[in-house]
Amino acid sequence: MSEDIARAAETIAGTLARIASALDRLAPPAPAVPDFAAADAYVWNPVGPRLDPVPKVNRVEMILLHGIDRARDTLIENTRRFADGLPANNALLWGARGMGKSSLVKAAHATVNTALVAGGGRALLKLVEIHREDIESLPQLMALARGSDYRFIVFCDDLSFDNNDTSYKSLKAVLEGGIEGRPDNVIFYATSNRRHLLPRDMMENERSTSINPGEAVEEKVSLSDRFGLWLGFHKCSQDEYLAMVFGYANHFGLKADEDTVRAEALEWATTRGSRSGRVAWQFVQDLAGRLGVRL
Prior knowledge:
By secondary structure, this protein is of the alpha/beta class. 48% of the residues lie in helices and 13% in strands. It is built from ten helices and seven strands. The longest helix is centred in the first third of the chain and has 25 residues, at 2-26. The radius of gyration is 25 Å and the shape is elongated. The protein starts with a helix and ends with a helix. The model has no long low-confidence stretch (mean pLDDT 83).
């Protein structure tokens, strides 16, 4: 009898070992710890998951950003405090398109890192871009960043939510409401054309179909409240637009008649129906091409 029991135990043990081995093969591998010394900027890829280093960031120098002085100074100061380990706020840059919202985020990251190196320190500040459709994977990104010696600006460009999109709840939980909370070494910067990130008809629909309309709208608006810093970007005047054009032209050494450039720049803006930093840059690219100058 004892031999039968021993054989049965061996059989069960062997079966359990095979089951455990199969489960190990089926389980997803643990995410690899990124080499944060490899680059100053990364793109988050939830498949893996992994952080893909960006060797060269597509950015505009801070000196070329005109007409947004107050937003520039405020964001740089907030970013500098964060890099120094001091309290800082998540930031929402909202408003008119083409006025340099995403350019300012990337330029602020470079400016603060340069200042750290100039002061004898290391470039400890990392910029991590997360795409709008990957917002629900934010907890995984936070888990990779948590505990690192580096500090991370998680940046989402053109953040907004459409009707029936509930992924904004994941963002709310990560920013402020989750049990773990946002790691001390992570801050979230987002740009959007909307101040409240959600379409008006979505809010109005919630109001009309809810038992308590006020509470439904409060839930939607509370996402924007998770951003302690709101920086508004508004349409620029003609003088500000021309200042942007000549700022670019002087920086790149474009030699052309000033009156001609002014007239052409205004015509360029008129044909596009708007004045903005993006339109000014597009005109300067056209001007440089006609002059045969490489930017």
